[in-house]
UniProtKB/TrEMBL annotation, chain A:
<protein>
    <submittedName>
        <fullName>ABC transporter permease</fullName>
    </submittedName>
</protein>
<dbReference type="InterPro" id="IPR000515">
    <property type="entry name" value="MetI-like"/>
</dbReference>
<dbReference type="Pfam" id="PF17210">
    <property type="entry name" value="SdrD_B"/>
</dbReference>
<keyword id="KW-0732">Signal</keyword>
<dbReference type="Pfam" id="PF00528">
    <property type="entry name" value="BPD_transp_1"/>
</dbReference>
<keyword id="KW-1003">Cell membrane</keyword>
<dbReference type="GO" id="GO:0005975">
    <property type="term" value="P:carbohydrate metabolic process"/>
</dbReference>
<keyword id="KW-0812">Transmembrane</keyword>
<feature type="transmembrane region" description="Helical">
    <location>
        <begin position="372"/>
        <end position="394"/>
    </location>
</feature>
From TrEMBL, chain B:
<keyword id="KW-0812">Transmembrane</keyword>
<dbReference type="Pfam" id="PF00528">
    <property type="entry name" value="BPD_transp_1"/>
</dbReference>
<comment type="similarity">
    <text>Belongs to the binding-protein-dependent transport system permease family.</text>
</comment>
<dbReference type="GO" id="GO:0005886">
    <property type="term" value="C:plasma membrane"/>
</dbReference>
<feature type="transmembrane region" description="Helical">
    <location>
        <begin position="215"/>
        <end position="240"/>
    </location>
</feature>
<dbReference type="InterPro" id="IPR035906">
    <property type="entry name" value="MetI-like_sf"/>
</dbReference>
<dbReference type="GO" id="GO:0055085">
    <property type="term" value="P:transmembrane transport"/>
</dbReference>
<feature type="transmembrane region" description="Helical">
    <location>
        <begin position="103"/>
        <end position="126"/>
    </location>
</feature>
<keyword id="KW-0472">Membrane</keyword>
Length: 451, 307
């Protein structure tokens, strides 16, 4: 946006136009400005003043202002639990988002210069900017929902978790009613009451398999032959149609595959193993002595549920990730445009002088780009202070933990909805105070551009 | 984008990953690499691009899925079982009265709010750029300062103002609010652009006896089209995508699509057959506008980069 210099333009034009008095011109200017003045005055300036005053008053029924409250509404922001949480989250947003967006945008801007399809890449990354926060919120809720089979994020996490050899789990299994010799509970695991010595066979009769759809990979149980260290079998002591002896491995009963088994001596785990498909296990190299054999509890608790993305601890980081998805492209486009104005010959000269790409980036690109970096940073700062929509939408799916993702603008809306106009006004004014440094920055930048 | 075609060592180090050919062929891989960048970088950026597309793609697939499948597993199951895909959700959505009127209201709010901001903003921008009146420079600095004022501060007083004017819940109330808060950016952008129009053109028009109105409509507006287009697209997207303003000022008869959909988000799982296609429909129009006019959009973002 080149601001073409037009030295003394209005004065000059006045002089050259005889027959029209300055008074007449002022009148015309008033006509051109009137609609804007009415709208800005009624909808921006008057509300600003109103809200400043309202923030110092108490609330009566249906939000009517009553008595002078002093700073009570302001102090309330930092003492009431929900708004304090909102304030803390806003601080997290302010610390994390502008910096990360700017850095991401910078890297993408530099890297896209080196690929053939940079324009396409820019369009793809910039696209979320055009989408409403509502649509983005729904999109990311689809990713974050908790049920493992639904949310994309958790499906990936659980997939990775299972890939790295975590044990299978069998929450349905428990010692049968008639089983003897096992103590413990699903949380702590099950231990044989009698210690075993080497060359014994340890039997773990459990029940609970759904026999019409047994776990994949389970094979008929086999009682291992004694000898060659402690051996044993973990199996489902029940077969379709019933029958068989309780506590004995009968034909047709299934082994429990892939469950963890521990051997303990003096309360310490000295060996661990995993059952085969037929339920057998063996500790071949244990010394003499007696051992406690245990099935640890972790295999009886429910399967790994993934991460609670919208829970107490992660809801704000999760929403921030969604927000980065929206704004990284914005930063990239601004910075790319800035980079296109950098003097090519300086960069080339540095390269010819043997500077590495990193050195060129660090010592030339970044310093020359710093004004644009600052603009991106400040813009993001303003946006993030006012952040509302995407937090509001994703919170809806978070249930009881929603309040942990609270931000000031959402709290303001909640207070507004509850007709607590005093606190709502105070939050509004705090937001204004927080953006004032950014406002000063904008005005300074504008003045510099003008001169 | 002029990729560095220098034959210097730097170009080849960044590039020559893997392609080992005879010394005689050295020029070709170097040139290829200069054109396409290194293989690793390509792959990383392809992954990034796919990651960026994935959420929206997931929304699209979910919106096309039989909603009874939702509790059974994520949208990616539909990629393996294409039989789950159906357009029934969209048909049902378009037959839901709240969504139909929501879509209509979105249009009825967005178009006037955009046109009004352009007209009022252009007039004021022209006055600020080319007319002399007392307090002009200070008034313009106030406009620049208002750029960053959060809309949240205006909710309560404007609700009361609308109640006094009998506008509560009307479409007009939503439009007016968007105009008010769209104006600082509009005036800022257009004033700066109009100021760059050569003054000789206006002199010539005045010599021919044209008044300010004529000059504004037949000279400033046509010449200012690039900036006006940027502003229009920006304002259009902003209003189309707005949630907060409509949440506060519209009622059930005037609510736009975003509000109609937001009210469904509490029952996320059971409303997915409305939410997913609704959200996707709501992003189709901005996406078309963006892809069609991205040059202007980017210009608008760059000129403002404050809102």
């Amino acid at each position: 946006m080149a601001v073409v210099e037009a030295p003394g333009r209005p004065a000059a034009s006045d002089r050259r136009r005889p027959g029209r008095s300055p008074g007449e011109r002022g009148w015309i200017a008033a006509i051109f400005l009137l609609p804007a003045v009415v709208f800005l005055g009624a909808l921006v300036l008057y509300p600003l003043i109103y809200t400043v005053i309202r923030s110092f008053f108490n609330d009566g029924p249906s939000g009517r202002a009553t008595t002078f409250a002093g700073l009570k509404n302001y102090i309330g922001i930092f003492t009431a639990q929900d708004s304090l949480q909102a304030f803390e989250n806003n601080i997290i947003w302010v610390i994390v988002v502008p910096a990360v967006v700017t850095i991401l945008g910078l890297f993408f801007a530099v890297l896209t210069e080196r690929i053939h399809w940079g324009a396409a890449f820019k369009i793809i990354l910039f696209m979320p900017m055009a989408i409403s926060f509502l649509a983005s919120g729904v999109t990311w809720t689809l990713i974050y929902v908790d049920t493992p089979s639904r949310g994309l994020a958790n499906s990936v996490v659980i997939g990775v978790h299972d890939m790295f050899g975590s044990q299978r789990s069998f929450p349905e299994l428990h010692p049968g009613n008639s089983a003897k010799g096992l103590t413990g509970n699903p949380k702590q695991g099950f231990t044989l009451t009698t210690p075993v010595t080497s060359s014994d066979v340890a039997l773990f009769p459990l029940t609970g398999f759904n026999l019409t759809s047994p776990p994949p990979g389970a094979e008929p149980a086999v009682k291992p032959a004694p000898g060659n260290g402690i051996s044993g079998v973990v199996w489902n002591d029940f077969k379709l149609g019933g029958g068989g002896t309780s506590g004995a491995v009968d034909q047709g009963e299934l082994g429990v595959p892939g469950i963890k088994v521990e051997a303990l001596q003096n309360g310490k785990v000295v060996a661990t193993g995993t059952t085969e498909a037929n339920g057998t296990f063996r500790f071949a190299d244990l010394g003499n002595g007696s051992y406690q054999i245990r099935l640890p509890g972790q295999d009886f608790t429910a399967a790994y549920q993934g991460i609670s993305w919208l829970g107490k601890d992660l809801i704000t980081p999760s929403i921030i990730v969604a927000y980065l998805w929206i704004y990284a492209g914005f930063a990239m486009v601004l910075l790319s445009a800035g980079m296109s104005t950098l003097p090519r010959d300086v960069l080339e000269a540095a390269r010819i002088d043997g500077a590495s790409e990193w050195q060129v980036f660090r010592r030339i690109t970044v310093p020359l780009l710093s004004p644009v970096l600052l603009v991106v940073f400040v813009t993001m700062l303003i946006n993030v202070l006012k952040i509302f929509d995407i937090v509001f939408i994703i919170q809806q799916a978070a249930g009881g933990d929603a309040r942990y993702g609270n931000v000031l603008a959402v709290q303001l809306y909640t207070d507004y909805g509850n007709q607590r106009f005093g606190p709502a006004s105070a939050i509004g004014i705090v937001l204004v105070l927080l953006v004032i440094p950014a406002m000063i920055f904008q005005i300074r930048r504008f003045r510099k551009d003008e001169s | 984008m002029t990729a560095p075609t220098v034959t210097g060592a730097s170009a080849t180090t960044a590039a020559g990953s893997g392609i080992v050919t005879g010394a005689a062929n050295r020029g070709l891989p170097a040139r290829l690499a200069a054109r396409t960048g290194s293989g690793a970088l390509q792959i990383v950026l392809i992954i990034v691009a796919l990651l960026w597309l994935l959420p929206t793609f997931g929304l699209l697939v979910e919106s096309l899925r039989d909603p009874t499948q939702y509790s059974g597993g994520g949208w990616w199951h539909a990629l393996i079982h294409p039989a789950q895909l159906t357009v029934a959700n969209y048909q049902a959505l378009l037959e839901t009265p709240a969504m139909r009127s929501g879509f209509l209201n979105t249009v009825l709010i967005t178009v006037p709010a955009t046109v009004l901001v352009i007209l009022i903003g252009s007039a004021a921008g022209y006055a600020f750029a080319w007319m002399r009146f007392p307090g002009r420079d200070f008034a313009f600095l106030v406009v620049v300062g208002l750029l960053v004022i959060p809309i949240q501060i205006a909710l309560i007083p404007v609700v009361k103002l609308y109640a006094a004017l009998g506008l509560t819940g009307s479409i007009i109330s939503v439009i007016f609010f968007h105009v008010g808060f769209g104006l600082p950016f509009a005036i800022f952008l257009l004033r700066n652009y109009f100021a760059g129009i050569p003054s000789e053109l206006m002199e010539a028009a005045r010599m021919d006896g044209a008044g300010e109105g004529r000059i504004f409509f037949s000279l400033i507006l046509p010449l200012g089209m690039p900036a006006i287009a940027s502003l229009g697209i920006f304002q259009f997207l902003w209003v189309w995508n707005d949630l907060l303003v409509a949440l506060v000022f519209s009622d059930s008869s005037s609510q736009p699509l975003t509000v109609a959909l937001a009210s469904q988000t509490r029952q996320f799982g059971s409303s997915i057959d409305i939410l997913a296609p609704g959200a996707f429909l709501s992003l189709v129009v901005p996406l078309i506008v963006f892809l069609g006019f991205q040059r202007y959009f980017v210009q608008g973002v760059m000129a403002g980069s404050v809102k």
